[in-house]
Amino acid sequence: MMTQTEQDLYPSRQRAEPEWLERRDPVVHGQAGQEPPVDRALIEQFVRDGFIVLEDVFSPEEVKDLVREADALRERGGLIPESRITERGMEGAEAVRSVFAPHRQSEVFERLASDERLSGLARFILGDEVYIHQSRINYKPAFRGKDFYWHSDFETWHTEDGMPRMRAISMSVMLTDNHPQSGPTMFMPGSHMNYVTCVGETPDDHYRASLKKQEYGVPDGESLTKLAKEGGIVGPAPKAGSVVIFDCNTMHGSNSNITPYERINAFFVFNSWANRLVDPFGETRPRPEFVAHRQVKEPIRPLKAPQSRTTGGQ
Amino acid sequence: MMTQTEQDLYPSRQRAEPEWLERRDPVVHGQAGQEPPVDRALIEQFVRDGFIVLEDVFSPEEVKDLVREADALRERGGLIPESRITERGMEGAEAVRSVFAPHRQSEVFERLASDERLSGLARFILGDEVYIHQSRINYKPAFRGKDFYWHSDFETWHTEDGMPRMRAISMSVMLTDNHPQSGPTMFMPGSHMNYVTCVGETPDDHYRASLKKQEYGVPDGESLTKLAKEGGIVGPAPKAGSVVIFDCNTMHGSNSNITPYERINAFFVFNSWANRLVDPFGETRPRPEFVAHRQVKEPIRPLKAPQSRTTGGQ
């Protein structure tokens, strides 16, 4: 299905046995001598672990406005078809689990994606102008929040979306306080340095099911055991207003949530402008525009934070 | 269905709305002046929180023997029919999730139930001779361990088994290291002081499904939210050889486990000899003997620990 001439440095879902391939891209592309917009120690931590937590990035007032908008999006009419993902909730009723592409459907989240506290740091880490490859609001319900199995986002974005290189990062803005036991996102520190290929082929229209539950592109148990042995597993539980940043190839997942604590976050994937999508490297047709953006005219112009807030540290 | 004259102090599943009833029994029955077999501070903590963790109770060698026997029980022929509970595991194969009544099916676990480090402490807390009301080995698999919803054990034991009073405790011996993110049992501290009744009625033979997943006898979301607000939620992750002890009415549950860490524990419910079962207080017929023991001839005679080990503290 490839039409452009682009070498596949990270082949996956092509063989019967999983492989560990070498990472061919730097984790931080920022140019030498350039000062990072956060403590350099955090950047070093990001290079080593593949993720960092920035606390107190957004004020309680900002969070309040974001929560109000996130709540409104659950119900709002006229959204992009299919961009609101639901699942059967506690009393059998359908509950909203995600709204995709909020930065294209809400001025509040469009502004958030451009906020320099996010986009400025993304530009530094990726060493390039940036754009949003995917975004969503995730609502993990109290009492019946489902688990989400281990995966490298890049494995999917490369294979199903045609993202050529590991030059993208995710930023998750916490809109509610997390709790160590409310099923927070868990990371395997250091896992971003290895590319674990998955076995098998991907069926067409796999994205419909995979947005709820990963079934293809699933790493094997032996590799996960080895990664956990090497780097452990951590599940940070940051407060509302914090931002969790992780590399596109960091292995992550989450357990279920039976606690009474709902979790909401606003999730943005920043991709390097030089790393825009080509045809998928796998055998499937490209996923729809609301899941993987191709119609992007120009990079993000970072906007100054409304107050003179600066990005905090861990 | 009640034939014995026994007042129902803790009616549940009888009304359309949940209620909070007062606890009518002490948490620790030990007689005044009697020295506890563990630090008094731990006993006070148990009274306040409804659970405690004792670390380093069993030596690594003892744990190794117990794990060997627990592993053997997954496969052993000739077990009590239905006492081995399986569920569909990772590759579609049936995996053993629990073996009930191990102390009746294995000399190793019969000995463990009588070990004074468990039974001696149980006698102190319950202020009486004790026997095993229920026991099981729990195997929570890696990668695909399921969650288990919030519940008070006593609510079930009273309604479905006919346990008259809150005079029973659970002791869970950790046979593997727990991890904060491997779906450990979570507790709501202080919840043991309130009896939250459940709504609705229980169908006959409910026990078959309920051993895997709780559907009836489920507390309402509002009550759980209130209990969590009052006392919080903690998920201790003790090492192998530790013992977690909790009151029969402490609200507890666990999230799923997608980590590569399997969790195995040996679980014993000690009931006061004076608190032996009568007919169920609910409308259902009694659950089978392997789930709720009625054929008990005499109380446990505590056995000294093999080495001169004493019970540790937290």
How would you characterize the overall build of this protein?
By secondary structure, chain A is α+β, with helices and mostly antiparallel strands. The first copy, chain A, has a single domain (40-275), classed as q2cbj1_9rhob like domain (Jelly Rolls, Sandwich), CATH 2.60.120.620. Helix content of chain A is 24%, strand content 21%. The first copy, chain A, has eight helices and twelve strands. In chain A, strands 2-10-7-12-5-4-3 form a seven-stranded antiparallel β-sheet. In chain A, strands 6-11-8 form a three-stranded antiparallel β-sheet, with no helix packed on it. In chain A, β3 (84-88) and β4 form a beta hairpin. The longest helix of chain A has 16 residues, at 60-75. The first copy, chain A, is globular. The mean pLDDT of chain A is 90. At the A-B interface, α8 of A face α7 of B.
Task: Output the CATH topology of chain A.
Answer: Jelly Rolls
Q: How many structural units, i.e. domains of chain A?
A: 1
CATH class of chain A: Mainly Beta
Distance between termini of chain A?
Answer: 44 Å
The strand order across the widest sheet of chain A is 2-10-7-12-5-4-3
The helicity of chain A comes to 10-25%
Please write the string of helix (H) and strand (E) elements of chain A.
EHEHEEHHHEEHEEEHHEEE
Average of per-residue pLDDT values of chain A: 90
Radius of gyration of chain A: 18 Å
Could you tell me the strand content of chain A as a percent range?
A: 15-25%
Quaternary state of this entry equals homodimer
Report the sheet with the most strands of chain A, covering strand number, pairing sense and barrel closure.
7 strands, antiparallel
Structural class of chain A: alpha+beta
Low-confidence sequence ranges of chain A:
none
Largest interface: A-B, 27 and 27 residues
Report the CATH architecture of chain A: Sandwich
Question: CATH superfamily membership of chain A, which one?
Answer: q2cbj1_9rhob like domain
